Amino acid sequence: FDQDPAHRPLYGKHVLVTAGPTREAIDPVRYLSNRSSGKQGFAIAAAAAAAGARVTLVAGPVALPTPLGVGRIDVESAEDMQAAVRRALPADAAVMVAAVADWRAKTIEHEKIKKHSSAPPALILEENPDILAWLATHPDRPGLLVGFAAETENVLDNAKSKLQRKRADWIVANDVSESGGAMDGDDNAVVIVAADGVERLDRMPKHQVGRELVARIAQALGAPAE
Ligand code: CTP
Ligand code: CA
Fold this sequence. Notes:
Function: Catalyzes two sequential steps in the biosynthesis of coenzyme A. In the first step cysteine is conjugated to 4'-phosphopantothenate to form 4-phosphopantothenoylcysteine. In the second step the latter compound is decarboxylated to form 4'-phosphopantotheine.
Bound molecules: cytidine-5'-triphosphate, calcium ion
Largest sheet: 8 strands, mixed
Protein name: Coenzyme A biosynthesis bifunctional protein CoaBC
Helix content: 10-25%
Family: In the N-terminal section; belongs to the HFCD (homo-oligomeric flavin containing Cys decarboxylase) superfamily. In the C-terminal section; belongs to the PPC synthetase family.
Shape: globular
Number of helices: 5
Structural class: alpha/beta
Distance between the termini: 18 Å
Radius of gyration: 18 Å
Number of strands: 14
Low-confidence stretches: none
Order of helices and strands: EEEHEEHEEEHEHEEEEEH
Organism: Alteriqipengyuania halimionae
Strand order of the largest sheet: 5-4-1-6-9-10-12-13
Strand content: 25-35%
């Protein structure tokens, strides 16, 4: 590790990151999930560790190696993710990059659902907890709370309303409608939306987005400027 304090602006800070999709069981062999690769969240965790932070990375099911210096907790469902986040508190900053499944099956069948010869089964869904919104009103709310928003339309308007609805400090928005989209690609073009303004970053590799974001987090947490 780099020993120069100027290069470790998050030294002494605990940064919590959620990443990847969640997986919501339907029966022992089937689940609901989404296309999140976890790459952006892992890149942020890596950048925060490189900046000297203690990092807890709560990861849904992804095929990625654990970044150097990062403490990783693997989870499956949104409820598991919420419990792992709760146990990881307190944190100085939390960056909620996970694409949490919005819904889960209302009942998980104990045996594999069979086709029989009847009609397809109806899937009854119920809403998952909103981990970001829950954390925003938690007694141990991190001093800096950052959400992500993957949008396919009205990126800025949706991000601004999410910022207010979820009481986050920043929402990092990206447009996932483009081909070679942000969900599983290696590049990302994001807009950082805060109460006091909007900053648009050029399209760049997810690792670089991670470093840019971590530099802003360090500044917000009061790290001395380099
Ligand atoms: N989030 C969360 N828990 C959920 C859903 C979302 O913590 N159950 C977090 C995500 O990690 C992200 C932010 O909330 O940081 C925004 O997620 P997004 O899916 O864009 O927002 P939703 O409120 O679920 O709205 P949408 O209908 O657009 O999916
Ligand atoms: Ca959602």
